Amino acid sequence: MDLSERRKRATQEATQWWFVLDSEPTQAERERYTDWLRESPVHIAEMMRIARVQQALELFEEWPDLPPYTPGEVPAAADRSNVISLPLDRSVSENSTAAAPSQPKRERSPRRTQAPSAVAAVLCCIAVGAAWFYPSYVGKVVQTEQAERHQLTLTDGSEIELDPQTRLRIRFGSDSRRVYLEHGRALFRVASDPGRPFLVQTDDTAVRALGTAFAVERQPQAVVVTVAEGKVAVFNTLRPQAPAALSTKRRRSSDEREGGSAPVYLTANQQLTVDRSGTVVPVHNIDSHRALAWADGKLVFQDDPIATAVAEFNRYNRIQLRVNDPLLANRPVTGTFNASEPESFAAFIQFVAGARISRSDTAVITLDTTR
Prior knowledge:
The chain folds into three domains: 3-135, no CATH class; 141-291, Sandwich (Jelly Rolls), CATH 2.60.120.1440; 297-369, Phage tail protein beta-alpha-beta fold. The chain contains eleven helices and 18 strands. It has helices spanning 3-21, 27-39, 41-59, 90-99, 110-137, 243-247, 254-258, 288-291, 306-316, 326-330, 342-353; strands at residues 141-143, 150-153, 159-162, 167-172, 177-189, 198-201, 205-209, 213-218, 222-229, 231-236, 264-267, 270-275, 280-285, 298-305, 320-323, 332-338, 355-361, 364-369. The strands form three sheets. Strands 1, 2, 3, 4, 5, 6, 7, 8, 9, 10, 11, 12 and 13 form a 13-stranded mixed β-sheet that branches. A three-stranded mixed β-sheet has the order 15-18-17. α1 crosses α3 and α2 packs across α5 (110-137). The longest helix has 28 residues, at 110-137.
């Protein structure tokens, strides 16, 4: 699901919550609504937008003058009697009323008199949700443990999906948006903001988003950047400059100034690896849907040793897999599996490799060869 689809879903959910709040919600519904607000600042923004539109509709005084709607009727192009001009705030409405004092005020319907209380309830919950949410991510550390995945939306609308055992720090300023990936991997869907570049940094590598969706994985000996949409620029921030470069009068580009070297650009379905020494493996084409399947809770293996697959499953689950036989551990496995279903993977290995499954503990599944 891309950013535009997520925003569309947020709008639909906000509309549903508006009607819930306007019909005497229960305490449980209010609590669920507050939790929904806390999930994302996009949810808060959508509720505020709907509240403004509803308030403008409340201030419109000419509902009784509108002709009844007849299904199938198409008004003439020159007839603008059914065009409603909605004021953006109360002052606009008051000015409009003052300019036309000859029109009498009309009584509001019971439905319309209920909306201000709904607006007040919405804004009150928004204030609570904003107070909880905004300090939670920006300027702080976000971390996932074993078997824990996390998705968060930042104040600019960008989204981050954290894999298990991932730790990052978020630093947003007036001129830049920076995320420091300390370990693990994360998928970033970046909202456009030309005035504030979005950068993901490790100790020696920086990735600058150019309106895109991409993942950064910090491995023990390398950093891997995978692009799903758009374009990124990758810098090696620790690469030393040549002596001639230090004395030149040429002004370096903004991209070069951001990193310690000229950037390498990646586009959709491309991947780049930078090892700890600063060596850049040539860019190669990949299937980003396959490479980033982990963000959708899938694990994809292509002739990988069973031991490697087991290690991946163990990161995503409380139930742990064990392989006792070295020969079985080195056998290759190919397939796509749900990351949260280690039992299904064990059953698959039992079927294709003739392995024996045993459970001496409710949290451990042991794979072994049959004797």
